Amino acid sequence: MWRLVFACLSLLAAGPSEAQDLIRLARIADIPDQYVGGEMLRAVYAKLNIRLEFEDVPGKRALALSSAGAVDGEIQRIGTLSRDYPTLIQVTPAINYIEPAVFTTKLRFDVAGWDSIRDYSIGIVRGVGSSEAGTRGMARVTATTSLDNMVRMLDADRFDVMVTDLFSGLAAVRKLNLQARIYPLAPPLERIHIYHYLHERHRDLVPKVGKVIAQMEASGELAALREALVKQVLGTQ
């Protein structure tokens, strides 16, 4: 559904009829915030007359493909990615942000950072860097294969809480019609700025993309686009 929401945006982004350059980016499959980030980037690249395509794969597979140069980069990842994957170059400023949040079926408590969930059994999605970093060293963490799978496992009481981006979690719970059972706790664990990454062979493109992101951020266009996409995915518009 998410890929169809902004079909009109894709047509506009195609621009003039002359041939365009093409960039292929890894996209973590079935993660709503990756869809939103991808559509935001589609608008960014359209201003450079560059067309985007996405390769939908699990999180770890995405990093294997992008870091090896099998695709041209990543839609959005946490800011420390280049430390572990030096072939991927960060584009600044940030393209988006995520708010990791705690979802549960029965618990009630005020979230006070990552340490406040340390004593619970926790579900995360394998390959999502923010969740892996936030729960590192915790004793009872289950890494699931996908967001939908994690939501179903929480519904089946396989762990006490799950952690995912607030927006993505709300979208997945709604998609599986589990709103009456699964709910987020407040506040989110933190807000994390996330960045677009390109493979080092596109080093010359990095400042050009960064300049467009900065211009769209300054004008408010980027924030308005994100808000519209989030509302569309959540069905509130």
Automatic annotation (TrEMBL):
Signal sequence bounds: 1-19
DNA damage in keyword set: no
Superkingdom to which the source organism belongs: Bacteria
Keywords: Signal
Name of protein: ABC transporter substrate-binding protein
Source organism of this protein record: Bradyrhizobium nanningense
